[in-house]
Design brief:
Layout lengths: L19 E6 L3 H5 L6 H17 L4 E6 L11 H7 L4 E4 L8 H9 L4 E6 L2 H14 L3 E4 L9 H13 L7 H9 L8 H10 L7
Parallel strand pairs: 1-2, 1-4, 2-3, 4-5
Protein name: Amidase
Pfam families: Isochorismatase
Length: 205
């Protein structure tokens, strides 16, 4: 039972806390309430668990909202905001977050080429920045069970479109296992288990 030494976390072909950034886009009440591709309670549960997980692994988080400053929309939902604490939030008017200068510069400043991405809706606020980021050489990993669309058909079509363009769909549990990688890395095991239970992947016995 001898594990190899950890690979270089910055050049590893798999996702690591050191080679990734997490983009969270538009988890606001208007968007949540319009989701029809999955149960909304589970959607909120999954994005909160994903945010907690990535914070535990010290993955930088870039948070964005749309139309809060204009008064047309409310801020990030409270359960997610509570987890993210003082994480800066980049408000914008563009549907495509990649076309917002502050958001774009925040991603660029991390100097990480793997973007773990979650956004509402799948067919717009996930698809458009994913396509643009990949066109600029980034690898994009949409968390499929933490995103949603206005219909199941719209959600699935959007995921197919970005996958055909080169995106790498992942799930909460796959992401958790990819970041943990080895049970000998005991520092993050408690957070791994806590968030797997929170997302309903494990039963708390």
């Amino acid at each position: 039972m001898t594990s190899y030494a950890p690979r270089d976390p910055k050049t590893d072909r798999l996702l690591t806390p050191e080679n990734s950034v997490f983009a969270i886009i538009d988890y606001q009440s208007t968007q949540i309430n319009s989701i029809e591709s999955m149960n909304r309670y589970q959607l909120v549960n999954n994005i909160v668990a994903t945010a907690k997980l990535l914070q535990a692994f010290h993955v930088p988080v870039i948070l964005s909202t749309v139309n809060v400053a204009s008064g047309r929309n409310q801020d990030t939902i409270a359960p997610l905001k509570d987890v993210l604490g003082d994480t800066p939030s980049y408000d914008r008017t563009a549907i495509n977050a990649w076309e917002d200068r502050e958001f774009n510069e925040a991603i660029t400043a991390t100097n990480r080429r793997n973007i773990i991405m979650a956004a509402l809706w799948t067919e717009a606020c996930l698809t458009f920045p994913a396509l643009d980021a990949m066109a600029e050489g980034y690898e994009v990993y949409p968390v499929v069970d933490a995103v949603g669309g206005t219909s199941l058909a719209a959600h699935e079509a959007a995921l197919r479109r970005i996958e055909q363009a080169g995106a790498h769909p992942t799930s909460f549990s796959q992401l958790a296992c990819e970041l943990q990688r080895d049970w000998n890395r005991t520092e993050t095991v408690p957070a791994f288990l806590e968030n797997m239970i929170a997302a309903g992947k494990f039963l708390k016995l």
